């Protein structure tokens, strides 16, 4: 029974960190859209998820939609993928990165929203994830 509870707790902890700033208030969604709209490129990188490489994308369009759940909204980004196809997907502001001066930070951090990006991006021009000691 202890093993089952431990596994359930670990799964809950992972899932709760994987969607930190996906469902947000309308005011935060509006601020995020305004900020991302000013950026030519952003990185999509979930440092709390299975290890993946950061993906730099050219922002074509950004907007928000009501989630139909309580008073929450999602921010969507539209970009062209490597195959040349237009992709539209909801984003989590904890895992969308931007460059400000010489600093790399998440959109959530730029907006002052509390979250844990887990693993930072190392370098805008040569992105790598940084192994974090656990």
Write a brief caption for the model.
The protein has 134 residues and is of the alpha+beta class. It is built from 3 helices and 6 strands. The chain has a 6-stranded antiparallel beta sheet with strand order 4-3-2-1-5-6.
List the helices and strands and how they pair.
Elements (H helix, E strand, L loop, with lengths): L1 H17 L7 H12 L3 E4 L10 E12 L6 E8 L5 E6 L4 E5 L2 E4 H4 L24
Antiparallel strand pairs: 1-2, 1-5, 2-3, 3-4, 5-6
Outline the structure in words.
It is a single chain. The N terminus and C terminus are likely disordered. A six-stranded antiparallel β-sheet has the order 4-3-2-1-5-6. 24% of the residues are buried. It is α+β, with helices and mostly antiparallel strands and 134 residues long. The protein is globular, with a radius of gyration of 16 Å. 25% of the residues lie in helices and 29% in strands.
The ordered H/E elements are HHEEEEEEH
Number of helices: 3
- Helix fraction by DSSP (H/I, runs of at least 4): 10-25%
Strand content: 25-35%
Question: Which class do the helix and strand fractions yield?
Answer: alpha+beta
Question: Tell me, what's the shape?
Answer: globular
Which value, in Å, is the CA radius of gyration? 16 Å
Describe the strand arrangement of the main beta sheet, using strand numbers: 4-3-2-1-5-6
Q: What does the largest sheet look like?
A: 6 strands, antiparallel
The span between the termini is: 25 Å
Model regions low in confidence, pLDDT < 50 over at least 5 residues: 2-17, 129-134
Question: What's the rounded overall pLDDT mean?
Answer: 80
């Amino acid at each position: 029974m202890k093993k089952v509870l431990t596994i359930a707790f670990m799964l809950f902890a992972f899932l709760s960190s994987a969607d930190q700033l996906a469902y947000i208030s309308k005011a935060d969604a509006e601020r995020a859209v305004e900020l991302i709209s000013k950026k030519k490129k952003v990185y999509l990188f979930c440092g709390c998820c299975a290890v993946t490489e950061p993906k730099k994308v050219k922002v074509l369009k950004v907007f928000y939609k009501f989630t139909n759940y309580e008073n929450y909204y999602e921010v969507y980004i539209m970009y062209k993928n490597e195959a040349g196809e237009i992709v539209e997907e909801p984003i989590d502001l904890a895992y969308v990165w931007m460059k400000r001066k010489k600093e790399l930070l998440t959109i959530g951090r730029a907006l002052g929203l509390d979250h844990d990006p887990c693993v930072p991006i190392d370098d805008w021009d040569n992105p790598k994830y940084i192994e974090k000691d656990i």
